[in-house]
Amino acid sequence: MNKLSGRQLQILRKILSSSNTRMEDIMKEFDISKRTVYREIASINEFVKNYNSKIVNKTDGLVIEGNVADIEKLKLDIVGYRSEFETEERRKMILSELLQLNEPVKLEYFSKKFGVTTSTISYDLKELEKWIEKQGLTLITKPGYGVYISGSENSFRKAIANFLYENFDTADLIDFLKTGYLAKNNIEKNIDLRLLNLIDYDTVLKIEKAILKLKSQIDYEIVESSYLGLVVHLALAIKRLQNGETIEMGEDNLQELKKTNEYKFAKKLAKYLQEELDIPIPEDEIGYVTIHLIGAKYRSTTQNYNDKDIEIIARDMIKEAEKIFDVSFSEDEFLEDGLKSHLVPAVYRLEMGLDIRNPLLEDIKTKYPLLFEKSNRVCDVLRKKLNMDIPEDEVGYIAMHFGAALERKKEAAKRYNIMVVCASGIGTSRMLMSKLQMFPQINIVDVTSSIKLKDLKVRDDIDLIVSTIPLDIKDKKVVVVNPLLLKEDVEKLKNALNTDFIMEYGIKKEEEGNFKKEALHIANYGKRILELCDTITYMTAKGENSSQIIEYILKNLIDENLINENQKEQIKGRLLKRESLGKIVLPNKGFVIYHCTIENIDFPLVVVGKVIEEVKMKNLVGDYEKIRTAFLMVAPEGDREGIEVLGDLSMSLIEREDLVNTLNEAQSQKEVKEKIKEVLLKKFYEEIKRIIT
After folding, report:
1. Number of domains the chain contains
2. How deeply is 561 buried, as exposed, middle or buried, from its count of CB atoms within 10 A (0-12, 13-18, 19+)?
3. Are residues 182 and 288 in the same domain?
4. d(Cα 518, Cα 539) in Å, to the nearest integer?
5. HSE toward the beta carbon, residue 38, CA cutoff 13 A
6. Which of the residues 309, 359, 568, 584 could staple to 593 if both were Cys, CB 3.0 to 4.6 A apart?
7. pTM of this structure
8. Are 243 and 102 in contact, with CB atoms under 8 Å apart?
9. What is the DSSP code string of 575-633?
10. Which domain holds residue 483?
11. What positions does the domain PRD occupy (predicted)?
12. Dihedral sign of CA atoms 396, 402, 408, 411 in order
């Protein structure tokens, strides 16, 4: 069961005890943003789902929905519930204090403060030591003397900055620095606010005032991510200076920095800070501010860049991206200009070891996972050129540049109407359709079986037929491809349509359809799942080839009264007349799928047959392999939902390795039924969710 934090526990108790608690009430009481409230509610819901309950935001406030008895049990359990404050949050508090203390503190101090034993504190310190060592610092514990952290001032500052970034969303930190929604007089209310004692808000206001004076004199913008790094650095530096801690920079480095224009600006900023804070700023501190200002430099055009290395890096990254994304960017002048403008300050910050923070990182990774993954591979060019690791925040910025370039191409691209054809309309067409849907230029207007192509002449809305089987069609352009849509198949499509393809890198939302029609579809889809679950059959399958295996399975289905002799001959005829078209052998799985539709059957059928003889078949990539399991699917001809259920099941066999593994290892009908039922119910839930959302 998920553990609640101290704040989450308080929020849950508040909602349970009041029938009209609003989001705004929680924001006000705990001094947190709306985004943070949503995040906390999501975590609490993970906890309360163990009581079959859920917090829902309604017009009159937040309410707990669920069975009355379950909610009452939740209320009783919450009375004596101890939050996670004793572990993660307590450790954060200990670390926060240790990073700020300049003298040893005894374990008894933390023991009394948090109401736990000294042995618990000792264990906490052992866990914290791993993080402390990663920051280049040392945790020192001396019996009778106390515990403290030792290390260079530079390491201390980096550690404190990392601690802040790890415990707060970048966006929340920006909100704090810009708006101060976490008022100083409320800073003791909860763990998140106490952590921000690392940064004094009054100091932040004065820093921003000083930066504002400077901004009117410099000839470039300070972008948001650089602004955050600069303000955090200055806030931490000033607090450390006030505590008598100073940082040193090598004399040679300092002399080099003094030659730059940014040093002059840094000196002015130091003067403004001294006026605001009444504290002297040493030369070495001015040197570090200079590094931040150089790293923050941003220009909107490339006219001022003389650095050929940056130009080479940008062009090499674009060349690599063209291979990875399989798209030409040669005509996009904005991409190269934008990359060069970004890389000048980014490369400097990376080389100087300055933090790069991207407030949109989590959104990019969540909403555009494939774009992020491919952009990360593009960043290998940068890793090789700079001989250093590239943080995810920087990868996120690179993804934004290539994502924008792909959007520009997508807007300019024409859409093509495609019909997908396979032998039965069940198996291979579903596999192929899932691949084709990654290309936004392709609009799939129909999915059909080869025997239903007689009405094709009246269709004037089709630009191309993409088929998994050869077709004898004269008046329409046809491309025959592998159901897995291999790289050479994509090239065939490009040539047939005379276009580049841009993949869909975001998580696609379904278009809203007619609700009544969709509701009826869902009802029929669910009915077909229930029928299918009742007829799933597990058996051994004897035979030395497809013909013998199919014959054996169908005879068993007659014995089970699931089909009659006439239906058996129809199924066998469909599967064996054009055997290679009604069969899919999954590569390296030992798993063959037989699929077809017939007219005079009332419900879909699924059979899992354990092949007990030595049988080898050619898989989808052309290699022969030993078959362990024969999987038969039969759907009623023209039954949209029946065909869709079996199509979704066949897609799950491709996408979910655990499904194939379970079916290969299954020893009973119960195992097979439970696994297939689990997969189909998940698909059913996804269908419902698609329509509702």
Report:
1. 6
2. exposed
3. yes
4. 36
5. 3
6. 584
7. 0.44
8. yes
9. HHHTGGGSEEEETTTTEEEEEEEESS-SS-EEEEEEE-S--EEE-TTS-EEE--EEEEE
10. 416-497
11. 198-303, 305-412
12. negative
